[in-house]
Amino acid sequence: xxxxxxxxxxxxxxxxxxxxxxxxxxxxxxxxxxxxxxxxxxxxxxxxxxxxxxxxxxxxxxxxxxxxxxxxxxxxxxxxxxxxxxxxxxxxxxxxxxxxxxxxxxxxxxxxxxxxxxxxxxxxxxxxxxxxxxxxxxxxxxxxxxxxxxxxxxxxxxxxxxxxxxxxxxxxxxxxxxxxxxxxxxxxxxxxxxxxxxxxxxxxxxxxxxxxxxxxxxxxxxxxxxxxxxxxxxxxxxxxxxxxxxxxxxxxxxxxxxxxxxxxxxxxxxxxxxxxxxxxxxxxxxxxxxxxxxxxxxxxxxxxxxxxxxxxxxxxxxxxxxxxxxxxxxxxxxxxxxxxxxxxxxxxxxxxxxxxxxxxxxxxxxxxxxxxxxxxxxxxxxxxxxxxxxxxxxxxxxxxxxxxxxxxxxxxxxxxxxxxxxxxxxxxxxxxxxxxxxxxxxxxxxxxxxxxxxxxxxxxxxxxxxxxxxxxxxxxxxxxxxxxxxxxxxxxxxxxxxxxxxxxxxxxxxxxxxxxxxxxxxxxxxxxxxxxxxxxxxxxxxxxxxxxxxxxxxxxxxxxxxxxxxxxxxxxxxxxxxxxxxxxxxxxxxxxxxxxxxxxxxxxxxxxxx
Length: 610
Known about the structure:
By secondary structure, this protein is an alpha+beta fold.
């Protein structure tokens, strides 16, 4: 796959300088250079940090970016100087299982570090004074998967566990797990009789009252902590229980987010059980939420202006203005070339390449209905996870641009049927025949109607033998109003580990980065959301991809015991040896693997479940 365009977003320097209380000249320059395209294009391996004796499960930059912390299956914390490529600190922790998360506590001058591990313990260390924990907690009954902090609250710490709890701590306060402590912020088991696991948590950096939560289902949640009362957790043997009589999570304090293709499977356990959110992160400005979903793609949600998916809502037909439509469909020479190449790929069943060409064309001309429909056709024929729903969105956009576009109307009906919306598909096709009588006898229309009728009969006779989730009415309401995604990113593979990250790269969130089960990490470029580059970074799996907070530097880790640092290299350097130049085959293999290798963490070795 070849990238033919670079999209750069200019920085309104004058506007930012005028607000000197928030930005300095140094900050402006630093932010502009952190992810400059000319730097991104020259990324390569700078150094390899060796010392751990196990999979490196989490990386964390300090606030000022001068230190890098790492934790591993070997139960060690290591702190590195990333610029001199040397290890500064090595702590053998009291953990007796894999460490999954590490966080520098804010405003601690890089001295205080928290860890969470598979032994269900959370520890806080003062690394400048002692190798023994200064604070500890074992209120969780199962593995602790992720910790998070808030920049403005240096003593606060949140943990997520596979027991379904999100716990909130103030490490200044005395804490006793055995006697019970008022630390339970959320218990996702309140939602359903089936076990909930909290895989990840994140605090919004600009609005720390907002907490993002990812579980073993496709639904990302954002809670307003100000509206939630803490509950006690009480130890009974190895089991922890909470004050169940306290109503502490009002309905209006949480917003759900999920790709629209999951709306139909609201109660289906057979669909939901294969999906888990392995990581989520807020954008630097706090307006977007990035979610990496196991056996699925990476999705980005608009936190401020999120909308629910609309599956069947046709625009009014109105009077056709042929002159206006002709003008709309006139393409520039560049767009015409991209469209022609895309059509050739489509005819030769090279759907990934076709989608790339159509996407580049759309970036140059966003008001052309034909480009959207062509891409929708390629999506549906490719049929990777999320493709049919993406095709539906493209069909709706094509109809918004041209309500008289019969092919877009027909393709929308087909997409609805493929997504399981049989009644809506039937209504859509009937409306097509009503609006465009001449098309009623087309062979394609007749075949689609036959497929719809068959699906209707199947629905009547099928009692749906799938297992269903036992959800509370409140949970059903929340899931049924889940907000749809704004953007999505395709190419990586996320099936084998449940700690695989996805992060924003650059102060303006211009790039998205994530690791993959194929041993590579990916960089996607916005707004096209196409793969910009791909690098070999591990012998097996890349789990962690952590961009430096200020400069163009990235740290990665995975199943290998090493940490790798990536930075721009000199222009006269020989051809980069770790960058992959042609990755169509790898991407296709990744998507095939995701559709054939269910996300089943119980059947994998411990190192690979992370």
